[in-house]
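agent: user wants the structure for 1,4-dihydroxy-2-naphthoyl-CoA hydrolase from Constantimarinum furrinae. delegating to structure tool.
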Amino acid sequence: MKYSKDEIIAACNTMCKNTLMETLDIEFTEVTEDSITARMPVTPKVHQPDGVLHGGASVALAESVGSAAAMVFNRGEKAQIRGIEIAANHVKGVREGFVYAKATAEHKGRTTQLWQIRITNSANELVSLVKLTILILRK
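agent: tool returned. relaying C-alpha cells verbatim.
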C-alpha cells in the first residue's frame, strides 16, 4: 500500500460525505493488504416494514465497500470505478446493531475485477454473501 491504513480509511470516509453512504451511515473501519471493511448501523432507517434489515440496504453497503476496495487496490492509477453486476444472497435477518461488510478480491484484472463481499452481524454470523463485478475505466 502506498498510504498508511489510517490515511486510506480517512480518505474512504471523507468520500462518503453528501452521498448515499453518508445517508446510510456507512463507515469504513479497516483495511488490510487484500481487503477493506465498513460497517453500517441497523436502525429503522434501513429496515423493511417488518423491522428487519432491508436487502437493498445490504446491497448498497456491499457495492460501496467493493467499489472502494477496487479504487484502493487499483495500484494508484487514475480510473473511474463502476459496478456493472451485483448478486446477493441474504441468509440471516438483522434487527439492530451493526452489520460489517468485508470486500476481498477474487479477480483483479486491468479492466474488470470480481469482488466477494461478506456481510456479517456483530456475532460474526453471515448475513449476506455478495458478488460484485467492477469495470475499470482508465482516464
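agent: one observation worth passing along. The longest strand covers residues 126-138.
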